[in-house]
C-alpha cells in the first residue's frame, strides 16, 4: 500500500533516493529539488556504492534497503533527524519503487 505524500515530501524522498542511488552509481551529482540539499560526503558515497553494487548482484530491494540504512551514516542520520515514521515509510517505498 502506497502512502499519499505531499509534494514537499515527494521532493525530499526523490532527492535522497537520487543522491543515495543514482548519483552514487553515475559518479556525479544530478539535479535536486531542494536547493539546500546536502549530498553525502565521499566516505558515505563509497558506502552507498557498495550497497548499489551488491544490489546489482542480488536484486533484492528489501535486502538493499536494509543495507542502505544499516551501512551508511548519511542515510541513518537522514532517517532519524526530525522525520516521522510515516515520512520514513514514504522514503522506503520511494527507494523500493520498481517503476
Q: What does this protein structure show overall?
A:
This protein is mostly helical and 99 residues long. It has a single domain, classed as Histone-lysine N-methyltransferase (Arc Repressor Mutant, subunit A, Orthogonal Bundle), CATH 1.10.10. Helix content is 69%, strand content 0%. It contains five helices and no strands. The longest helix has 20 residues, at 7-26. It is globular, with a radius of gyration of 13 Å. It starts with 6 loop residues before the first helix and ends with a helix. The model has no long low-confidence stretch (mean pLDDT 86).
Distance N to C terminus: 15 Å
Largest sheet: none
CATH class: Mainly Alpha
Give the number of DSSP strands: 0
Strand and helix map with partners:
Blueprint: H1 7-26, H2 42-58, H3 61-71, H4 73-80, H5 85-96
What is the gist of this entry?
The protein is an all-alpha fold. It has five helices and no strands.
Features:
globular, mainly alpha, Arc Repressor Mutant, subunit A, 99 residues
Amino acid at each position: 500500500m502506497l502512502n499519499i505524500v505531499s509534494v514537499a515530501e515527494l521532493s525530499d524522498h526523490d532527492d535522497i533516493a537520487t543522491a543515495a542511488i543514482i548519483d552514487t552509481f553515475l559518479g556525479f551529482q544530478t539535479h535536486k529539488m531542494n536547493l539546500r540539499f546536502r549530498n553525502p560526503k565521499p566516505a558515505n558515497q563509497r558506502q552507498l556504492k557498495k550497497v548499489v553494487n551488491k544490489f546489482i548482484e542480488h536484486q533484492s530491494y528489501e535486502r538493499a534497503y536494509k543495507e542502505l540504512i544499516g551501512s551508511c551514516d548519511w542515510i541513518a542520520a537522514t532517517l532519524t533527524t526530525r522525520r516521522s515514521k510515516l515520512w520514513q515509510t514514504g522514503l522506503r517505498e520511494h527507494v523500493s519503487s520498481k517503476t
